[in-house]
Protein 1
Amino acid sequence: MRAGTLRHWLLIEQKSLSVDANGDRTETWATFGECWGSMETSGGREFLAAKQTISDLTHSIVVRYKAGYTPDMRVKFTDPKNSNAARYFNIRAIANPDERNEMLSLQCSEVTI
């Protein structure tokens, strides 16, 4: 893959549990790593659940290989023109094309927060 196609600056986040002074567990997201990647919409659908229309938009995100990515993580993308509008993508599956440890293809679904 040509480096020029990796034009999106991405944060890879993982869940972390913390306990506050009252002993309550809270789920937070900690940065696992930062990298350049490419994002492409790979499909979408709308469906009816609990009398509400729900849309599901899937993306294929390609990044350079790094060991340690898991489907429990998410990708955060912030548009440089509008830093207040972050988008989040839950990682559903991870593919290592040709098992060459050069690139990873992350199959993700966009999350609205």
Protein 2
Amino acid sequence: MNAQILETIKNNFTVSLFKTDEVSEKQFPMTTEVVGLSTFQMPMIYHHLQEGVELSLYYNYSASASHRAVEVHFKGFKLGYLPFTTANLIEKVLMHGFELKVKVVAVEKQKYMPINRLDIQITENYLY
């Protein structure tokens, strides 16, 4: 195994290197809510979203520095965004090439209606 990956695992490198004032208490795994749930694509896919489903994170490079955005996707469909303080940390982790694993931990919705709230868990994903 790569020595750098072993050292990262040993020291929980991503947490210590990428701490910011806003999220100094955050550590992996972290749980957060998806904000700005997309109402345009949600009716097509909301019935597929349940606990344990894996999602993807994408950093929106076209957004201005004051409107940084880390988007949450499910099979190519944009679900929404990470909250700003969480996005600041995740953006740095993604830009440095670290892999993250994202899964749904809670879904809140009314019967026959799109999702009201979506909580996800973000963990470090080490390749062995």
Protein 3
Amino acid sequence: RPNHNWACGAVAGWDSFARKDGQQEMKALVTGGAGFIGSHVTRVLLERGAQVTVLDDLSGGFAENVPSGATFVKGSVTNSALVEQLCAANQFDYVFHLAAYAAEGLSHFIREFNYTNNVVGSMTVINACVRHKVKCLIFTSSIAVYGANQVPMLEDTVPAPEDPYGIAKYGVEMDLAAARRMFGLNYLIFRPHNVYGENQNIGDRYRNVIGIFMSQIMRGEPLTVFGDGEQQRAFSHIDDVAPPMVEAALTPSSWNEVYNIGADIPYSVNQLVAMIGEAFGRTPRVDYQPAREEVKVAYSSHDKIRKAVRCAPPVPFAEGIRRMAEWAKIHGPRKGEVFTSVEIRENLPPIWAADLRD
């Protein structure tokens, strides 16, 4: 396992997490903690001395991702009775809500599924946090809330999401602000973007382009690119994301704010293809598919989070790709399952429609 250089170092606030006065350590719930970002957040919390419970239905994560030392409960955030039971039994100090189905492109065609998992599930978590007086609820949103033509994306930019996934995330953000006004619930909202790294589900067919490319190249398949490949994203290594989330949670002066989080420099998908090939020592073949309905260029400013907590420079893209590639080579490719519960098939990208006909 590679040695991680965390993006943020210890600052005032960590001592309050691992108490030194003989009292019980702080308790945290991580929803989606068997998933990619959630498993890293869980690990950072454990390293800081927290007692961590992970709730995950394993629809996109894997039980083996849950770090040793955390208590794993299999279940969904849409199960309000289960969420209530966990919060009542544990009296969590912090709740990190990362459970979601984050497939922007597919969200147009799975509206009911999208809003059930990403909005209704979040309301269940918010209700429980209010009832059980959680100190702070940390919510993982997305830069999908910004929409198009708003670069660099700034936290005070008025959101204009263009897909149901972004709409769902923004809806939860607004509800958190309402819960703060009505009940005094402290919250933190993070808008990460294009996160990649170790533990990512490289078998998912609909999201996480870097994982998809790595899985395809290891299987000897062409890399699937929608459009001309000139769309740009600021791909963010997980070490740019998980540690600052935990550190901000432990810094009360950062609460009740929205923060962009991730890398600064955008790269095109075609540049990504070349980097993947270099990391695996192969010349990748590319299968250019018709363009999807998506934002062409997306990157954001991170000045606000860097003023709130001390952060190191982002992991260089080539270094991050190398780290993830070494991890992927050990774990091997995964062939993801076809999402069969598509609700609308009109205008479905041909490659996804073909999956449903097979």
